[in-house]
Amino acid sequence: MAACAIRRGFLTTVSKYNRKHTHRILSIIEGSSGLEAKRPRLPCLACGLPNIQQTRFMSSRNRPEGKVLETVGVFEALKQHGKYETGQLFLHSVFGYRGIVLFPWHARIYDRDVIPPMSDSKPEPPGSHGSKEVKGKTHTYYQVLIDTRDCPHISQRSQTEAVTFLANHDDSRALYAIPGLDYVSHEDILPYNSTEQVPIQHELFERFLMFNPDKATQAPPFSARDTLKAWQEKNHPWLELSDVHRETTENIRVTVIPFYMGMRDAQNSHVYWWRYCIRLENMGSEVVQLRERHWRIFSLSGTLETVRGRGVVGREPVLSKEQPAFQYSSHVSLQAPSGHMWGTFRIERTDGSHFDVRIPPFSLESNKDDKAPPAGYTF
C-alpha cells in the first residue's frame, strides 16, 4: 500500500461510512489528487488494489516517508428526506471524487426492473425490445463541480468532460465541453463539511460560489453568486435533466440519461442533436467485461439505423466488485425533431462466455425552446 502511494504520489484512507456514526474525519495525503468513497467494494483509486483497510486511518507504519495526513472535512448525516443545498460538499459514493452541489434537478426515473401499475407509465417506442410499460418516479439529481485534483484518478471510470454543448458557429458538428461538470443522483452523495474557504479546485468555483461568513457555522457555508444563477437560467434548456431510464440484466444495471442539445442548419436541412450519458454498474460479484455495443436508432422521419462496434468510446471496461461502474457520454443527431434509441451491450465473463445486457429504450425529444444557442460558460 505504501509502495502504491509512493509510486503514484496519492493515497486515501477514509474510515468506512456508517450511517449511525456520521462524524468521521476524512484524511488524505498532503498534495494528493482524490478521495476514496465510502463503499467498501471500491479500491484504491490510484492502483485499483481491492484489499484496502478502510476502517481506520493510515498509521505511521505504512505512511509514505515525507508525506503527512491532513484533515479534509467531517462527514455529515445523509439526507433521507429533502434535498442538498447549493454549496454542499460531498464525496461521490461510486467514483470517489470530491465535488460541490451547484443546483438540483427533478427527474423522472423509468425503472424497467420495477413492475408498475397501468397508470403513470411510458409506452415502449416502436420496434424496441419488450412490451411492458414503465412507471416514472420523481427523483433528485444535482448539477455539480468535480474537484480537478481528482479528475486524473477517475478518468478511466468516468468521463470528466461529459457535459457538452453545440458551438455557436456555422459548423453544425462542432461541440465543446465544460470540464469537471457532472450530474449526480441523490443517493450517490456522501455529504461532508470543511473549514476551508476554497475546498474545491475548479476554475468555476469562485465564479459560481462564494464563502458566506454569515453561514460559517452552518452547512453549507457557500452561497450562489449571481453569475451561477444567470448561467443556470440562460442554459437551462441545454442542461436540464428530465428523464432517466434504467434496466438490469444478469446483475448489470444500465442507466441512460438523454439531453437535448439544440438544432443546427446543415445543407438546407435541420439537424437535431442529443447527448446521452450511460452508466453501467455491476451489481454482482462476477468479473465481466464490456466487449461490443449494438444500437438501434429510430427517427421520426421513418428511418431505422443499426450501429455495431467494439466497446464504447474506444474502451472495453472491466466491471468488478472492486471497480463496479463505468460511465460515459456520447452524441447522436437526427434529421427529425424526435426519435428513439435502444440496444444491447455484449458482455464477456471470465470463462469466455457472453451474454447481452439490454439498454433501456429512451426517447429523443426536441421540445425545448430552441430560439437561442447555448451560452456555455461565457458571461
UniProtKB/TrEMBL annotation:
Any GO CC annotation of this UniProt entry: mitochondrial nucleoid
ApaG domain: residues covered: 246-371
Localization per Swiss-Prot or TrEMBL: Mitochondrion matrix; Nucleus
GO biological process assignments: DNA repair; error-free translesion synthesis
UniProt KW Mitochondrion keyword: yes
GO molecular function, one term: DNA binding
InterPro entries linked to this entry: ApaG_domain, ApaG_sf, Hemimethylated_DNA-bd_dom, Hemimethylated_DNA-bd_sf
Record-linked SMART domains: YccV-like
Keyword annotations from UniProtKB, A to Z: DNA damage, DNA repair, Mitochondrion, Nucleus, Phosphoprotein, Transit peptide
Superkingdom of origin organism: Eukaryota
Predominant location category: mitochondrion
Subunit structure: Interacts with PCNA and POLD2. Interacts with SSBP1. Interacts with PRIMPOL; leading to enhance DNA polymerase activity of PRIMPOL. Interacts with POLH. Interacts with POLD1; leading to stimulate DNA polymerase activity of POLD1.
Reported function: Involved in DNA damage tolerance by regulating translesion synthesis (TLS) of templates carrying DNA damage lesions such as 8oxoG and abasic sites. May act by stimulating activity of DNA polymerases involved in TLS, such as PRIMPOL and polymerase delta (POLD1).
Protein name: Polymerase delta-interacting protein 2
Organism of origin: Oncorhynchus kisutch
Species lineage: Eukaryota, Metazoa, Chordata, Craniata, Vertebrata
Gene from which the chain derives: POLDIP2
